[in-house]
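Example record

One chain of 107 residues, shown exactly as stored in the release files.
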Amino acid sequence: LVRVIIPAAIPTVLSGLRIGGALVIVGVVVSEMLISSAGIGYLISRYRTILDSPHVFAGVLLVLFMAIAFNTAIRWIEGKAVIWQTGTRAGQNARDEIGSGAMQPAT
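Predicted structure tokens for this chain:
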């Protein structure tokens, strides 16, 4: 279980977390726009009603950067946790040798 099942499940779990996390950020902002009296969504909605476009775009860009930062963080964690997808040191050395022509195919 610890050596096979959990390591095999890590890519699926992290992919779901990455996709779901970005959607949750957007969902929270949309719900703040509708029913909240505080938060980024509330500020976007408030500035939209008083026609303050620079603040609206700043809020939208802030939400965008938060989603991108979350996505990047999960991808970094995925790269550290799933070592066989990024390549081990032996796998990288074999690719380098093949690319440089040092290893010739068997004839």
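Notes: The mean pLDDT is 80.
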